[in-house]
Amino acid sequence: MTRVLFVCTGNICRSPMAEAMFRSMVGEAGLADRILIDSAGTDDWHAGEGPHRGTLEALARHGIPAAGLTSRPLEDADYRSWDYILVMDADHLAYVRSHNPGDRAVVKRVLDFHPSQAGGDVPDPYLTGRFEEVYLLLEPALRQFLKTLQQSAE
Description:
alpha/beta; Rossmann fold; 4-stranded parallel sheet; 6 helices; globular
């Protein structure tokens, strides 16, 4: 089983959106029994809360189920138990790399898989309200990441 963890700051906007979108893509590809998906935040401000209303609305507009999404902080055990930790921006990348006690997980920005925006940051819609922009950035990056996983499994 391949284990994928998405990380943002509070785990209520970007990372749960990526989690829900990727779970849907993996399900459509018939790989739900082979890829485990979750999300977490670098901070615990919203622990136990559901996603931001803007995240839920963007997912609903695109027909992506959001059931079961609950914010949680990144924990020490996450660094040892996930194969991929995909972060949303440079700050998250620095945080995860500085706290990662080993080299088990592949740590990258999610946009490293974007066909035309590799190395970029997914902007935080918490203050801007630009949740649709986040969805549109994540969609091609997540599709490419799924292709990468499928190719590495062949």
